[in-house]
Each structure stands twice: as structure tokens, then as C-alpha cells.
Write a structure and sequence with these properties.
It contains eleven helices and four strands, in the order E-E-E-E-H-H-H-H-H-H-H-H-H-H-H. With 218 residues, the protein is mainly alpha-helical. It has two domains: 152 residues, Orthogonal Bundle (Transferase(Phosphotransferase), domain 1); 63 residues, no CATH class. It has a two-stranded antiparallel ribbon. This is Glycogen synthase kinase-3 alpha.
């Protein structure tokens, strides 16, 4: 718990073909982030680098991984990286061109020590224009909750697991593309479950899994 990967990108995400399970690789940049401890902002591959890092924050949190996940998610939909700046400054420009100019509140949340607010005022583009016209609202909602300038407004990981986008995974009738049953997806440990409120916990584990777990405990 509390470990930040700091380099989430497609090359570090491995899929087990038979089961479709995801494995995260290359923990060379990973770090357990401690509040009040200064961290380097020159971290994470540029295309997937959270905007607070581009604003030179040294007090960032695990939410930088959530931004990177949002970038990977978008890339899976459009089959190319979403933001492709050739330098840190140009990466920020690419983000602003699509998501619009961050507010002063956003900038302070990303880096309270950043005092220069002379950014061009650009409006955000609609997500269907940024990604694809055929996307449903659940997909758009999840991506927009991941790709928030303000790290405090990004959806939490376990809350993201309860998002309607993943409802099919909670359906007992859902099968893998090879017609095999889904692997075990809901084996959260007590630390994970205790880190979220009761309503999130109820949504995390579907009722049919909960009943199965209760029977195994008898």
C-alpha cells in the first residue's frame, strides 16, 4: 500500500493472453511516497507524465499514476498516444490544447509554489472529438475522471473499480473472448477494503462473489 509506480505506460503493462489478467512490470522508478518528503519531478515517461510533474511539483502523490492510467486508457481507444509533446514544456502545451487551460485553483493544487499563471486561455475540446465519436458516456466519464488537472479531483483507484464502465466484470454471465470464465478479480485484502468507505466496499465485490466467499468461510 502507498507505493507509487511512477512510470505507468503500455510497455510496462503485461497481459496474460489466456486469462486477460494485467500485470504491472518494471518497478525501477517505484517509490513509497511519504508526506512532506521532497520527490524528484523529473520522473515518468513524458507522454504519460502527470501535469503536476510538468509544473515541477516535488510534493506529488500517487495520483500521478492515475493520470498515466488515463493516458494509457485513451491510447487503447485511439491506438496512439494522446499527448505527444517533444519536451516537458511542449507536453504541457499538448495537454492544454485538448483539455483547455487549467484554472488557478488547478495550478495551486498541482504545485502551490508555482506562481506564474501566464498561460494562454484555451477552451477544452469535447471528449468525443478528442477520442472517438462512438464512445459511450461511461467510457468518457471514466477517462475524464482520470485526466483531471487537479490531482485531488482524480478518481481514486478503488472507486474507479466500481465505475459503471466495469459493470460487465461484475456480471456472473460474462465470459472471456475465448469463452472461458473470468479470473478471480475481487480478492481485495483487508487493508484495501478498509481504505474506502462502506458504500464503495459494497460496490467493489458483487453479490454473487460475496455469497460464494461466505459459503467458503463456513
Amino acid at each position: 500500500m502507498g507505493v507509487c509506480h511512477r512510470d505507468i505506460k503500455p510497455q510496462n503493462l503485461l497481459i496474460i493472453p489466456k486469462t486477460g489478467e494485467l500485470r504491472i512490470g518494471d518497478f525501477g522508478s517505484a517509490k513509497r511516497l511519504e508526506k512532506g518528503v521532497v520527490k524528484t519531478s523529473y520522473i515518468c515517461s513524458r507522454y504519460y507524465r502527470a501535469p503536476e510533474l510538468l509544473f515541477s511539483s516535488t510534493g506529488y502523490t500517487n495520483k500521478i499514476d492515475l493520470w498515466s492510467i488515463g493516458c494509457v486508457f485513451a491510447e487503447m481507444l485511439i491506438l496512439r498516444p494522446l499527448f505527444t509533446g517533444q519536451s516537458g514544456a511542449k507536453q504541457l502545451v499538448k495537454i492544454i490544447q485538448l483539455l483547455g487551460t487549467p484554472t488557478q485553483e488547478d495550478i495551486k493544487a498541482m504545485n502551490p509554489n508555482y506562481s506564474t499563471f501566464n498561460l494562454p486561455q484555451i477552451k477544452s475540446k469535447p471528449w468525443k472529438q478528442i477520442l472517438r465519436n462512438d464512445l459511450d458516456q461511461n467510457t468518457i466519464d471514466l477517462i475524464s475522471n482520470l485526466l483531471q488537472y487537479n490531482p485531488n479531483k482524480r478518481i481514486d483507484p478503488l472507486e474507479a473499480c466500481t465505475h459503471p464502465f466495469f459493470d460487465d466484470l461484475r456480471d456472473p454471465n460474462t465470459l472471456l473472448p475465448n469463452n472461458q470464465p473470468l479470473p478471480e478479480l475481487f480478492d481485495f485484502d483487508s487493508d484495501e477494503l478498509n481504505s474506502v468507505d462502506f458504500e464503495i466496499r459494497k460496490k467493489l465485490i458483487p453479490s454473487h462473489i460475496m455469497e460464494s466467499q461466505k459459503k467458503q468461510m463456513k
